[in-house]
Amino acid sequence: MAGAVRILTGTATGSTAQGGGTALPETESCLCDAGPVMLEDLVRLRRARDVMDRDYAKPIDVPALARVALMSPGHFSRNFRAAFGETPYSYLMTRRIERAKALLRRGDLSVTEVCFAVGCTSLGSFSSRFTELVGESPSSYRARRHDEGAAIPACIAKIQMRPVRRAKPVTHS
Q1: Cβ 93 vs Cβ 125: under 8 Å
Q2: Type and span of the H or E element at 141
Q3: pLDDT tens digit string along 46-60?
Q4: CA-based diameter of the chain, in Å?
Q5: CB atoms within 10 A of CB 76
Q6: Which of 18, 40, 14 is nearest to 29 (CA)?
């Protein structure tokens, strides 16, 4: 499962500074999809992920996120993918598409207005990514009725409506 984390701890040595109790382990790391990620790195990666969740509509790039996580851009990208199962860009675009779906369901904004409201700068790229993740174009999503989810609690609806990357169909030539 993407993002699954198992804590591995090293051997505890010595005692606590207060005398007695259990000592902190020498090493702690998380075993994620692509290998071990240090626990302190995971905390910093979550901080960068929180920035993406909060500031999805602003221009965000990997170097800026890496600065938040106190890592180099390459190290940040590798560790983010190892910890969360997708690249930082893919995670950010998923957040943007989630928000775009909510705005399109309201129906008071055009597709272009929604595109710019969620932080995308290209309508073509937005439409392509939206179609890839949702399975229909933004305009057809906006045009259809969305009453089927009205009685579902928001916390459940968010899980059920999260965009998922669809596998590209195999074409035989």
Answers
A1: no
A2: helix 138-143
A3: 999 999 999 999 999
A4: 73
A5: 23
A6: 40
